[in-house]
Amino acid sequence: MLSTRSPVLAKTAYRAIGGAKPLAYTRISVVLCQYHAPSFNQVQQVRNFSFTSKAPIQGSQTLQIAPTQTRQRETRQSWPHPVYTEKQMQDIVIAHRNASTWSDKIALNAIRLLRSSFDLVTGYKHDPKIASGEKTAEGGTHFTMTEKKWMIRFIFLESIAGVPGFVAGTLRHLKSIRSLKRDNGWIETLLEEGYNERMHLLTFLKMHHPGIFMRLMVIGAQGVFYNAFFLAYLLSPRTCHRFVGYLEEEAVITYTRAIADIDAGKLPAFESMDAPRIALDYWKMPEGSKVREMLMYIRADEAKHREVNHTLANLDGDMDPNPFMTEYEDPTKPHPGKGIEHLKNTGWSRDEALSK
Predict the structure, then answer these.
(1) Global pTM?
(2) Coil, helix or strand for 234?
(3) CB neighbours of 157 closer than 8 A, spacing ≥ 6?
(4) Is residue 182 part of a domain?
């Protein structure tokens, strides 16, 4: 309950109730707001991770956050997620495409700079050999990454990863209607990629509500990155797609390391924690799935984005059709598609992508 002895507010209250003029406005106590959560029929929100609270993490609780408004309703997915098999997700590996052109080298160096800055901000460390694929995450040097640190990294990473797809899709959409020409199917894949990355973020937000400092970091990073990527895509779409391909390589490394830490027993809260309902519905996961299984799906998504963007960087954006939206004459032959059954880690060459 909040109260005030302000003369102005007291006078307003007096006029509102039509009462007699008080002897002194300063002596009236006016009730401004009385809030009780049950009166709004809201379920208490579970916040297992908090950057401002020192409360211990409760890994056994089911992570569910109720809608904040009674008018809020569930909606159908704009892009239903393809079904992944357990074997397909287990086969995801760390991979790196060598930079062969000046455009590739610019993209790779930009990612290295972004990665080092990102690692510094989120307090993330990993064995450098993991990035080159020389050894698996399980054999890496020990670094202390707690559940809370992983959540900081996941949320910040996904808030940035959702930008490139929509920037590229928007620019190609505007170019299509400006030039009065079709886009050859690129827009849909790019927007779907941004949508998928946002679903990653929404999933993690069911596990934690960031504090004010984290929100300011996200706003600042998005403002800088959006405008920088927008200008860069106007200058060289090929370089930008290669940049995103390298970015997704790093994302696969990050999630591989997180999964390895869970398997090694370094993240006990994640071991017993249930995946949020939004994850079960989006990825069509079995009931009772844990956070580790959820991270397997997210890592597979990042591997798919890695393949898509490395492939698009190999194509002529003005002339070539999007191979991930193409119907092929021989469906039994490996070819680009929406799923990961024929995943090509470093992207399809132009000849492979345009073959029948």
Answers:
(1) 0.78
(2) helix
(3) 118, 251, 254
(4) yes
Question: Residue 150 to residues 95, 175, 325: CA-CA distances in angstroms?
Answer: 22, 39, 34
Lowest mean pLDDT among 59-63, 92-96, 336-340: 59-63
DSSP for 274-309, written as a single string: BPPHHHHHHHTPPTT-BHHHHHHHHHHHHHHHHHHH
Residues forming the annotated binding site?
A: 158, 197, 200, 248, 302, 305
Structure tokens at 288: 């009772």
Give the number of domains in the chain.
Answer: 1
* Tokens linked to 315: 């194509």
Residue type, 181: K
Binding-site residues for Fe cation sit at: 158, 197, 200, 248, 302, 305
Whether residue 307 is contained in a domain is answered as yes
**How big is the chain by its Cα radius of gyration, in Å?**
25
Confidence (pLDDT) at 119: 79
The span from the first CA to the last CA of the chain, in angstroms, equals 70
**Can you give the pLDDT at residue 22?**
45
Contacts of 85 (CB under 8 A, 6+ apart): none
Full residue range of the structural domain in which residue 152 is found:
144-354
- The angle formed by the CA atoms of residues 39, 44 and 45, to the nearest 5 degrees, is 135
Closest CA to 64 of 270, 277, 323: 277
Q: Are 86 and 289 in contact (CB under 8 A)?
A: no
**What's the pLDDT score for residue 5?**
46
Question: Looking at residue 155, which CATH number applies to its domain?
Answer: 1.20.1260.140
- 64 located within any domain: no
How high is the pLDDT of residue 101?
93
Over range 257-276, report the average pLDDT. 91
- Mean pLDDT in residue range 223-249: 96
Q: Is residue 87 part of a domain?
A: no
Evaluate if residue 129 carries a pLDDT over 90: no
Say if residues 129 and 151 touch (Cβ distance below 8 Å).
no
Q: At what angle do helices 163-179 and 186-205 cross, to 10 degrees?
A: 150
Other Cβ atoms less than 10 A from the Cβ of 83: the count is 9
User: Burial of 313 by CB count in 10 Å (0-12 exposed, 13-18 middle, 19+ buried)?
Assistant: buried
pLDDT at 181 over 70: yes
Q: What count of Cα atoms within 13 Å lies in the side-chain half-sphere of residue 250?
A: 25
pLDDT band for 50, please (50, 70, 90 cuts): very low
